[in-house]
Specification:
Elements: E1 10-11, H1 22-34, H2 44-64, E2 72-75, H3 78-99, E3 108-112, H4 117-128, E4 133-137, H5 147-153, E5 158-162, H6 176-186, E6 194-198, H7 210-213, E7 217-221, E8 231-235, H8 268-307, E9 312-314, E10 327-332, H9 340-345, E11 350-351, E12 357-359, E13 362-364, H10 367-371, H11 376-380, E14 382-386, H12 393-411
Parallel strand pairs: 1-11, 3-4, 3-5, 5-6, 6-7
Antiparallel strand pairs: 2-8, 7-8, 9-10, 10-14, 12-13
Helix pairs in contact: 1-8, 2-8, 3-4, 5-6, 8-12
Family: Belongs to the class-V pyridoxal-phosphate-dependent aminotransferase family.
InterPro entries: Aminotrans_V_dom, Cysteine_dSase, PyrdxlP-dep_Trfase, PyrdxlP-dep_Trfase_major, PyrdxlP-dep_Trfase_small
Pfam family, one: Aminotran_5
């Protein structure tokens, strides 16, 4: 495992990015040496590189229980994957308009108000440029969307519902499976409704099963689960016949790699590394999840022990709401001075995030917490802490002591 270069620091920002697993590093290194040939070449070295790519495609499909490895397309990362989904359903809607004269001129997209910017800003792009209509479903105070709210937003021209599987700041798991089941009951319409979930935060922490979720598109991001900084997109039966497939159109012009869906010579070593990261998740998910939940719970219990439950608010931790096993979003509410960014600024060891911004002296509380109708002062005092596979109790104890010292500095 790649380690933090500063041994004194304790990294608790694994929802932002993870280090490469040692086995992933080994697989990438071997591929850099042996798999450098062009995978489109017909000589043996090229065929070997292509075989490694297809092996990784199969490992990803196995991890998410995709029916066909061909449903997996390699991309640069989650942002590209999410853009491809919106672009694809947009083009599909234009094609439908050519066949059905009385369709609404613009397609309609539905997202939630806690989506990552790589979904939120894409949807806003279509709306601002007069290319589509967008409805935004608000989460409730638990941080989860209500399926009935989304169903009430559906219009005759609705073509895409894009809801993340788990939130990066609170860890709240969204009811994507229930949502998909209800939407599938509606299909048979002139305009099909496709369901997309950005599973970036969920993979490697909880079981992600494309068949169980019943989604048409699913975004995969390697650097969130100890893989390289590339990604992939699952598109259900994307190479099948028109009546069954999820439409997929490329963003870029070029050659015919990835079955014509993503032009450009494949990045074989990183694809091999992504496949290895997926293989490790398939083999070890239960162990990873158990270890992370044990450390997350230990962290929350230590915080309560040291600061008192009355002085804390665990955002996203609600009865009946599921969270990722590694995520703790906590506000220190005993003083308005305990702004999240100030706590981190005065910590000697903790490396984490607030989920908020501070530019030119202007502090902005987390938009995710505000979307949950959390009081501004509580949201401003929040830290987002996410443990990793190898986080230890000793590190947790050091972090809690570090935060305690930081609060003392702020008061002084």
């Amino acid at each position: 495992m790649c380690e933090n270069s500063n041994e004194k620091k304790v990294y608790l920002d694994y929802n932002a990015t993870t280090p490469l697993d040692a086995e992933v590093i080994q697989s990438i290194t071997e591929s850099l040496c042996k798999g450098w040939s062009n995978p489109s070449s017909q000589y043996n070295a090229g065929k070997d590189a292509k075989a490694e790519i297809n092996k990784s495609r199969g490992l990803i499909a196995q991890m998410i229980n995709a029916n066909f490895p061909s449903d997996i397309v390699f991309l640069s990362g989650g942002t590209e994957a999410n853009n491809v989904v919106f672009n694809s359903v947009y083009i599909h809607y234009q094609n439908l308009k050519n066949k059905i004269n009385d369709l609404d001129p613009l397609p309609h997209f539905i997202i939630s108000n806690v989506e990552h910017d790589s979904v939120k800003l894409v949807a806003e792009h279509y709306e601002k440029n007069g290319l589509g209509e967008v409805s935004v479903a608000n989460v409730d105070s638990t941080g989860a969307v209500r399926v009935k709210d989304i169903l009430n937003m559906i219009r005759p021209n609705t073509i895409l519902v894009s809801i993340m599987l788990a939130n990066n700041e609170t860890g709240v798991i969204q009811p994507v499976e229930d949502l998909s089941a209800e939407i599938k009951k509606l299909n048979g319409r002139r305009v099909p409704i496709f369901v997309h979930t950005d599973a970036a935060q969920a993979i490697g922490k909880i079981n992600v099963d494309a068949e169980k979720l019943m989604v048409d598109y699913l975004t995969i991001v390697g650097h969130k689960f100890y893989g390289p900084k590339i990604g992939a997109l699952y598109a259900r039966n994307c190479l099948g016949n028109d009546s069954e497939k999820s439409p997929l159109f490329h963003l870029f012009q070029g050659a015919g790699q990835e079955s014509g869906l993503r032009p450009g010579t494949e990045n074989t070593p990183m694809i091999v590394g992504l496949g290895k990261a997926c293989e490790l998740v398939t083999k070890n998910l239960e162990k990873y999840s158990k270890q992370m939940q044990e450390m997350r719970d230990y962290l929350e219990n230590k915080l309560i022990e040291v600061f008192g439950v009355e002085n804390l608010r665990f955002n996203g931790k609600s009865v009946g709401t599921e969270r990722l096993p590694n995520t703790c979003n906590v506000s220190f509410i005993s003083s308005p001075k305990f702004k999240g960014f100030l706590i981190l600024k005065n910590c000697d060891y903790l490396e984490a995030s607030t989920g908020s911004c501070c530019h030119s002296g202007e502090f902005r509380a987390s938009k995710i917490l505000l979307a949950m109708n959390i009081d501004l002062n509580v949201a401003a005092n929040a830290l987002r802490l996410s443990v990793g596979r190898d986080t230890t109790k000793q590190e947790i104890e050091l972090v809690v002591q570090d935060i305690q010292n930081s609060l003392k500095k702020i008061l002084n």
